[in-house]
Design brief:
Layout: E1 6-17, E2 20-31, E3 35-39, H1 46-54, E4 61-66, E5 69-70, H2 76-82, H3 99-105, H4 122-134, H5 150-163, E6 168-172, H6 180-195, E7 199-203, H7 207-213, E8 217-221, E9 224-229, H8 231-236, H9 238-245
Parallel strand pairs: 3-7, 3-8, 6-7
Antiparallel strand pairs: 1-2, 1-4, 4-5, 8-9
The structure holds adenosine-5'-diphosphate.
Keywords: ATP-binding, Cell membrane, Membrane, Nucleotide-binding, Transmembrane, Transmembrane helix, Transport
GO cellular component, one term: plasma membrane
Domain ABC transporter: 8-247
Length: 247
Amino acid sequence: QIPDRPLLEVTGLTKHFGGLKAVDDCSFTVPEGSITGLIGPNGSGKTTVFNLLTDTIRADSGTIVFDGKRLDGTPPWKRAHAGLGRTFQITRLFGEMTVLENVVAVQRSFSVGQLGRIAVSGKEAAAAEELLEFVGMRAFRDQRAHALSYGQQKLVELAQILMLDPKLVLLDEPAGGINPVLIERMGEMIRELNSYGKTFLIVEHNMPFVLGLCDPINVLARGRTMATGTPDEIQRDPAVIDAYLGD
Ligand code: ADP
């Protein structure tokens, strides 16, 4: 592994909604092996950037180079196939399926009419169970997903993303809406996965969480990257402090 090799290189990414420039000539990189943060005030374009990366929304312009390949202009399945991971927001649990089935089902594509119980092979079940063990949800494997708490759902969603084994894991607010103990655990799991070589790009509002976990951190303001640096550099940057105080 070459240090600081960019796994993801975004250049000039732009998306207008009518007259509003939600993402405006935005550029940043995600070094391979990093836990990269994407922060910014409300409305600065973070969610739109994630949607542009997964092609949930098509960009107006800009290039996306992932693992040495141009992915801009390609459909979502091609990006997922290349190893550009899905986000918490795109991954959704099927309430009537069990926890285990949900983790297995993420690898398949279905229409809503096909939902119900699915056949799970022994190999799939073993892989899913290992991931449920990792996120601490193995004991819930046979429970229907709708019976889970919000925090438990987030853990299962993390297992779903890992089942796809993406090269880059996109996490949209992994610490959002969960209790402090689980936030702590979420951070530990991300760090552990990173120590095995997994690269992360994380959008998160919880500043202590981001500052303790992410490096580098990219700060968005009005759809553009206004600062990039280590947690220390970001915290000391007057323009960053300004952008947040002005929020
Ligand atoms: P963040 O995630 O940083 O809070 P967003 O990416 O959600 O920011 O939004 C950036 C800007 O784009 C906001 O002004 C928001 O209102 C606008 N926006 C986002 N999605 C749409 C959409 N589908 N249609 C119109 N405007 C949108």
